[in-house]
Amino acid sequence: MTEPSLKRWPQSGFEEFFEYNSNFFHLNVNVGSMVECKRYHDEWLNRYSYAVQSWTEYDVAIWSVRCRQSLKLSFSATYFAISSGDARRSKVLASAYYLAYYSMLHAMWAVIFLHPDQPLHSITEIGHSKLANVFHSSFTQGKIKIIGYDTKTLVDNLRFLREYYSYRMPLNSLFSGDKELSRAHAYLGGFVKQSIQLANLHSHLLRKAAERRGFASASIPFHQHEDFKRDFCRINAKEHPARNTPLLDPADEYAQYEYLKIGCDLMPLSLEYDHMFDDYMTYMDDMRPEQQTIATIRRLVGNVLF
Fold first, then answer.
1. Under a CB-based contact definition with an 8 Å cutoff, are residues 187 and 3 in contact?
2. What would the mean pLDDT of 155-175 be, rounded to a whole number?
3. Which one of 37, 172, 221, 274 has the largest count of C-beta atoms within 10 Å of its C-beta?
4. For the segment 89-118, what is each residue's pLDDT rounded down to a tens digit?
5. 94, 75 in Cβ contact below 8 A?
6. Phi/psi at 281 (nearest 5 deg)?
7. Distance CA 73, CA 235 (A)
8. What pLDDT is attached to residue 126?
């Protein structure tokens, strides 16, 4: 597996199709021309437009939460990638490979959460293999390869390393002689950047299709409040096997309250970023990362989006 070559791209690409400011530099380079950018834009906009036709107000609300979750996953993918690098520099390879693998999973999940063909029940319970397969078939195969990495090879290598160190912890480091495996982590940062830009692109396509149908915002019908709370938790939390109620982060609890009280706006990632910036790691406790780490994650995600 080789690093994608960086072609010159002297002009904007996907940026031209949206009224809101975003940076799609890495995707523009991968696609290669304005003609191909338009072809990709039109194909996926049609797919979102078809999906929106059958929406109700409740669907608008759920897709709003899916957009928010996509941005959360962009933050967590970045956090895991940074932490993986820290662990590697500390020579704690078991942690480094574990974090690298889950960074890649979260980066892919950020995109798949916005896939118009993936229903909520499928995307919240998706297995690792299906997640990788859907991502690979949708975005790295076909005529337009919008992700510049061999996703299947990269995820297979990181999964192998994670499982080896999790279940067969070696007495010594044994992969330094294998160039492909020893450098699998080197592609992670680029992959995460491209995936975040791709998730942002698809969130804008979703918003554009919804706006054309008058579905950019909605109020959750009162009789569906309990359904919304259940689905919100399916997206944002995990239920403990011995407890009846899932645990929600305080920021998620407040977001759920706002959705129910005020209503839902279908927000692309770049528009939701400032709000997420304010919520990210702001609740003080002993397990909070160092402020420098938090600032780095916020900066990196912001630089990718803008």
1. yes
2. 90
3. 37
4. 999 999 999 999 999 999 999 999 999 999
5. no
6. 55, 35
7. 11
8. 95
Rounded to whole angstroms, the Cα distance separating 36 from 39 reads 5
Q: How big is the CA angle at 101 (ends 99 and 104), to the nearest 5 degrees? A: 105
SS (H, E, C) the chain: CCCCCCCCCCCCCHHHHCCCCCCCHHHHHHHCCHHHHHHHHHHHHHHHHHHHCCCCHHHHHHHHHHHHHHHHHHHHHHHHHHHHHHHHHCCCHHHHHHHHHHHHHHHHHHHHCCCCCCCHHHHHCCCHHHHHHHHHHHHCCCCCCCCCCCHHHHHHHHHHHHHHHHHCCCCCCCCCCCHHHHCHHHHHHHHHHHHHHHHHHHHHHHHHHHHHCCCCEECCCHHHHHHHHHHHHHHHCCCCCCCCCCCCCHHHHHHHHHHHHCCEECCCHHHHHHHHHHHCCCCCCCCCCCHHHHHHHHHHHHHHHC
Domain map of the chain by residue range? 15-305
pTM of the entire structure?
0.93
Q: Are 75 and 297 in contact (CB under 8 A)?
A: yes
Residue 196 tokens, joined: 């975040």
Range 222-239 average pLDDT: 94
- Taking alpha carbons only, the member of 118, 163, 157 closest to residue 137 is 118
Phi, psi of 197 (to 5 degrees): -65, -35
Tell me how far apart the alpha carbons of residues 13 and 55 are, in angstroms, rounded to a whole number: 30
Residue found under tokens 């359904």: 227
CA atoms in the 13 A half-sphere facing the CB of 206: 30
> Rounded to an integer, what is the distance from CA 166 to the centroid of its chain?
25
Backbone angles phi, psi at 118, to 5 degrees: -105, 110
Give the closest residue to 190 by CA, choosing from 152, 148, 157. Answer: 148
Distances (CA, A) of 232 to 247, 253, 264, 269: 12, 10, 12, 18
